[in-house]
């Protein structure tokens, strides 16, 4: 899939960011969209996923702080992040899949990711 992630930035601890994912898969509305992150020297991990019918899943570290959403008309998905912590620093990626899964390898990636750095 062709996806383009954007919205990453350098923010202070406690700050907020909204990441965007533009996906060229068609039809967009039948795909699940996942957000992932990869910190230096660590494996890529699932952050959150939204299914084609709008059901959402979150990893424990994201619950209560991150919100995933999608706009099928715009073919975009978003990840709203608040109360950011230094340990959230990573490159964030989005991926597509037939349905949500806990397995990173199940998703199709195609973007360069967007860097999120949380530091004072």
Provide a descriptive summary of the structure in words.
The chain is mainly beta. It contains no helices and eleven strands. It has strands at 3-6, 10-11, 17-23, 32-38, 45-50, 56-58, 66-71, 76-81, 90-97, 108-109, 114-118. Strands 2, 4, 5, 6, 9, 10 and 11 form a seven-stranded mixed sheet that branches. A four-stranded antiparallel sheet has the order 1-3-8-7, with no helix packed on it. A hairpin with a 6-residue loop joins strand 4 (32-38) and strand 5 (45-50). The radius of gyration is 13 Å and the shape is globular.
How do the strands and helices of this protein lay out in sequence?
Elements: E1 3-6, E2 10-11, E3 17-23, E4 32-38, E5 45-50, E6 56-58, E7 66-71, E8 76-81, E9 90-97, E10 108-109, E11 114-118
Parallel strand pairs: 2-11
Antiparallel strand pairs: 1-3, 3-8, 4-5, 4-9, 5-6, 7-8, 9-10, 9-11
Describe the largest sheet.
Answer: 7 strands, mixed
- Total count of helical runs of at least 4 residues: 0
Task: Tell how many strands the DSSP assignment holds.
Answer: 11
Shape estimate:
globular
Q: How far apart, in Å, are the first and last alpha carbons?
A: 35 Å
Structural class: mainly beta
Rounded mean pLDDT score:
96
**Radius of gyration, CA atoms, in whole angstroms:** 13 Å
Poorly predicted runs of 5 or more residues = none
